[in-house]
Amino acid sequence: MGRNVVQPLTYPHLILYSYRLRDRASVASSSQVIPFDDNGWEQTIELGDSMGILAALSSHETDPPQPIDCLYEYKTKLDDRLKNFQTKNEKGETIGTTWLILACISSESKAVRQAVAIEAYQTTFQTEAVPKIKPHEFLGGSLFEIEEIYQTSDRVLVCLWRDRDRMEEMQKYYYDWLLIFYHRHKVVWSYQNSRQIKKRLVAENFFPDADTIPKISISLDDFKLDEADFHQLRSALYENMRILTQHTTGLESLAMQSQTLKLNLENYCQSVKRLQVKAEASLPFLTDFYDKIAPQYRNQIEEDRISLSPGLKVREQLIDTVRSLVEVSQAQRDRDNQRHIERHITIVGAGVGAASAAASASAGLVTEIARVSPIKVLQKDSEVAPVFNLAIVLLFSAVVGVFVAWLTSKFWPRDR
Question: pTM for the whole thing?
Answer without folding.
Answer: 0.72
